[in-house]
């Protein structure tokens, strides 16, 4: 009888633990899908940066109701420089349809970035991430890093290459 009682207690305790773990895991998954973050499918984490003109740029107001392409990079990066003509074309072609492009330069001086922007005739806004706060927030490991936010501020693309025109057109239509 003592063995039967032990087995009953072990079974009851095991059932309780399984029940508890199952529901606590579901809560975490639901929270991750709803909360802000830096991964595809999450609402973009907010940040504030200064533009090369010295104006404060807040992501939430900049990206509000617009498809927004964030491009993390630096002036010394060959791949970042290679993307500039593509980004300029996208901005020129789609800005009237609701596309924002924001270059985010990581840890370089305002003077150097301003000179680079002028030399390359960059036609979209450029912000300075002087302390790499936004880069850390978005877990930038390699540059360039392209992040697209849809009109609701949800991350839909996060890659080291620019998105295709088709991806942008699809997001702009929706």
From TrEMBL:
It comes from the Bacteria. Gene3D superfamilies: Glutaredoxin. InterPro entries: AhpC/TSA, Thioredoxin-like_sf, Thioredoxin_domain, Thioredoxin_ResA/DsbE_sf. Pfam families: AhpC-TSA. Residues 38-174 form the Thioredoxin domain. SUPFAM superfamilies: Thioredoxin-like. One of its GO terms (molecular function) is antioxidant activity. This is Putative thioredoxin. It comes from Candidatus Scalindua rubra.
């Amino acid at each position: 009888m003592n063995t039967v009682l032990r087995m009953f207690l072990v079974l009851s305790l095991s059932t309780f633990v399984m029940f508890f773990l199952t529901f606590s895991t579901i809560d975490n998954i639901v929270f991750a899908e709803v909360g802000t973050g830096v991964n595809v499918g999450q609402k973009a984490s907010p940040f504030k940066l200064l533009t090369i003109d010295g104006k404060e740029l807040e992501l939430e107001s900049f990206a509000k109701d617009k498809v927004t392409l964030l491009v993390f990079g630096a002036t010394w990066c060959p791949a970042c420089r290679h993307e500039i003509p593509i980004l300029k074309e996208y901005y020129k072609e789609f800005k009237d349809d609701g596309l924002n492009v924001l270059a985010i330069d990581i840890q370089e001086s305002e003077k150097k970035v301003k000179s680079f922007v002028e030399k390359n005739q960059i036609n979209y806004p450029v912000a300075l991430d002087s302390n790499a706060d936004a880069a850390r927030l978005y877990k930038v490991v390699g540059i360039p890093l392209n992040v697209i936010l849809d009109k609701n501020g949800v991350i839909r693309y996060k890659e080291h290459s620019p998105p295709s025109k088709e991806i942008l057109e699809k997001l702009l239509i929706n």
